[in-house]
Design goal:
Number of helices of chain A: 2
Number of helices of chain B: 6
CATH superfamily of chain A: TusA-like domain
Order of helices and strands of chain A: EHEHEE
Helix content of chain B: 25-40%
Distance between the termini of chain B: 29 Å
CATH superfamily of chain B: DsrEFH-like
Strand order of the largest sheet of chain A: 1-2-4-3
Number of domains of chain A: 1
Shape of chain B: globular
CATH topology of chain B: Hypothetical Protein Ychn, Chain: A
CATH topology of chain A: Translation Initiation Factor IF3
Number of strands of chain B: 5
Structural class of chain A: alpha+beta
Largest interface: A-B, 15 and 12 residues
CATH class of chain B: Alpha Beta
Strand content of chain B: 15-25%
CATH class of chain A: Alpha Beta
Radius of gyration of chain B: 17 Å
CATH architecture of chain B: 3-Layer(aba) Sandwich
Distance between the termini of chain A: 18 Å
Oligomer: heterodimer
Largest sheet of chain B: 5 strands, parallel
Strand content of chain A: 25-35%
CATH architecture of chain A: 2-Layer Sandwich
């Protein structure tokens, strides 16, 4: 999947992946896609909840070798 | 969409009880909430510039997981509190949990409003210069003015 910005939140626990996502999105333009990698399994539900409550769109979640990759499209 | 609001009353000044208010406040702010945290009694310790004095005690804390079972008589020995705090901080770091300082900074960055209870500041004769700068001082009525209009209001 194409993306405009990415960052790695591997090793970080709740709520840091969410807080870092919010921060990363803040200087992006509407419609741009953020790729985020996290190893906190709680982030799977948290990221969806973040999207639901902020109006951003979680395009996809992928899992591989204990790491989760999220694609978040900015509102 | 109207902005959601959350208010938290933070009354505890130990390392374990400091996490919930800062985690919830920073996360709610990231979700777009307007957040205020009212620090009163021992919670005021969480507004100190220096957070290194915030500790956890195994005493009277039977739910705290210990590496080895430890009788209360041992827990009360000098230095046990410092040791428990050091071990807890190491554990938090190992698991990628943010430090209190980091979470507090993230709260402030996200414009979470911190209010220190003026009455408790006076009661304990705290010196305001020991607290971080970007906070307000107020009382119950001031807090309720905001809390009465919130979607979530918690007492920690």
């Amino acid at each position: 999947m194409n993306f405009d910005k990415e960052f790695d939140a591997s090793g970080l626990s709740c709520p840091l992946p969410i807080l870092k996502t919010k921060k990363a999105l803040s200087d992006m333009a509407s419609g741009q896609v953020l790729k985020l990698v996290a190893t906190d399994c709680g982030a799977v539900k948290d990221m969806q909840a973040f999207a639901d409550q902020t109006g951003n769109t979680l395009l996809a979640t992928e899992e591989a070798n204990g790491a989760y990759t999220f694609y978040m499209k900015k509102k | 969409m109207t902005t959601k609001k959350m208010a938290i009353i933070a009354t505890k000044g130990t390392l374990d009880m400091a996490y919930p208010p800062f985690i919830l406040a920073s996360t709610a702010a990231a979700l777009g909430y307007e957040v205020q945290v009212f620090f009163t009694f021992y919670g005021l310790q969480l507004l100190r510039k220096d957070l290194s004095t915030v500790m956890i005690s195994p005493l009277a804390n039977p739910a705290m997981p210990m590496p080895v079972p430890m009788p209360v008589m041992v827990q009360m020995l000098p230095g046990m509190e410092s040791m428990a705090t050091m071990m807890m901080k190491q554990k938090l770091k190992k698991h990628g949990v943010a430090s209190l300082q980091e979470l507090r900074d993230l709260c402030l960055e996200a414009e979470v409003k911190f209010i220190a209870c003026q009455m408790t500041v006076d009661l304990f004769e705290f010196d305001k210069s020991e607290f971080i700068d970007n906070i307000e001082y107020g009382g119950a009525a001031m807090f309720l003015g905001f809390a009465g209009d919130t979607d979530i209001c918690l007492f920690v």
